[in-house]
Amino acid sequence: MVCDAWTEKLDAYLDGELPAAEARAVGEHLRTCGACAAESLSRVQQKRAVQAAGRRFTPDPAFRARIQKSIAGRKSGGWKRFRFPALAGAMALLIVGAIFVNLNRGRRGERELMSELTDLHVATLASSNPVDVISTDRHTVKPWFAGKIPFTFNLPELQDSPFSLIGGKVSYLNQSPGAELIFRVRQHQISVFIFQEQALGNARPDAVQTALSFNVRSWDQNGLRYFVIGDASAQDLDKLSELMKGAR
Amino acid sequence: MVRWFTLVGVSQATLPLGSFEELAIPHFERLYNFACWLTQDRHEAEDLVQETYAKALRGFSSFQPGTNFRAWIYKILRNTFLTSRTGLKAAATLPLDLEGDEEILPTAKGTPESILLQRSDSQLVQQALEQLPVAYREVLLLCEVEEMSYQEISATLAIPMGTVMSRLSRARRALKEAVRKEQSVGG
């Protein structure tokens, strides 16, 4: 039969083991030969069936634990695999351990902080009175905060940007008073929180992160801590952050 | 987060690269699955996997870094199986035509009532796989479940590529037959 030569190659073809030119040739043949196409289908189905049936046994978690324990930390039979003396390795572990503990404290505080800020942002989104001072320009908003919070801040010029300032309100973080400014960019609302450094407590916030589904940016400036949070794109947040940082 | 990972990155540089644990643990579940198919007994499979890891750890200095760790550890598992009591028994049932024959035989086409396997026939296929001689079962599993290349299978089983292809071809035909038998038994 004329197709024997093709069916000999079929397994290798279906296993992805044929060189490109041969694979193309087999592919071409299958497009024109019904009998070989049917055989190919039957073989593919058997392959898939074996794969599905073959993924059958999963190990007991207790067994997994035993195996991990038996090989944990064991690198090899010999010292030749160590690039540096073992002492350096041990030192590194101690240092990393110490830093880990330190960061961890900061991590817990940071999680709480992020949780708090997202709550504040969401509350503003949901509120029917999201702002206490309404404005479309910075000249009304900034003076409104005087006497209400123990610091001042600058707002950027937004005329040539996609952002608009909706307004602001006083906000609290760890009993420390600060400002929440509400910006809009296209369909998104972004809160910019400004607090004094002491409002942070133990937390060491990251410069860039996400919390729930919000993007967050954070930085220090002149003893104040800024947070920009919203569901706008990362680029939008970055742009707004740059504008805030450069504000006079 | 960024700071933490950077620090970890620095400390990693002072630990040995490609440590045994890093290389070996990711294969654990698949090795266990393969061991179950070989031994057809969960307890024996556990012993086999345990012994495999112990042997691999002891022999790790002989492993060339950068080469195929997966093929290396599967080979250890398989060799350990073959020297076990069950393995020796299983090896004794190897059909004679598996010895060194590299010819790829033409495959019989499906009959008009070709059996097209559905996913729901999983149990049928499992039973059929269990019936196969271990040499056919293992080559099918390495190809379809572990998705090893012919090259890798050749390294794992220590047989030439040509033998991999002919054995696969025969294994597939045998499986097709076994499935047909299981189907007729089931009614």
Describe the protein in words.
The complex is a heterodimer of chains A (248) and B (187). Helices cover 47% and strands 21% of the residues of chain A. With 248 residues, chain A is an alpha+beta fold. Chain A has two domains: 4-47, no CATH class; 109-245, Phosphorylase Kinase, domain 1 (2-Layer Sandwich), CATH 3.30.200. Chain B has two domains: 15-92, Rna Polymerase Sigma Factor, Chain: A, CATH 1.10.1740.10; 104-187, Winged helix-like DNA-binding domain superfamily/Winged helix DNA-binding domain (Arc Repressor Mutant, subunit A, Orthogonal Bundle), CATH 1.10.10. Chain B has ten helices and no strands. Chain B has helices at residues 2-12, 20-24, 28-39, 42-58, 69-82, 85-92, 122-131, 134-144, 150-157, 161-186. In chain B, helix 5 packs across helix 9 (150-157), helix 8 (134-144) packs across helix 10 (161-186) and helix 9 (150-157) crosses helix 10 (161-186). The chains are: A alpha+beta (248), B mainly alpha (187). The interface between A and B is large, with 62 and 68 residues.
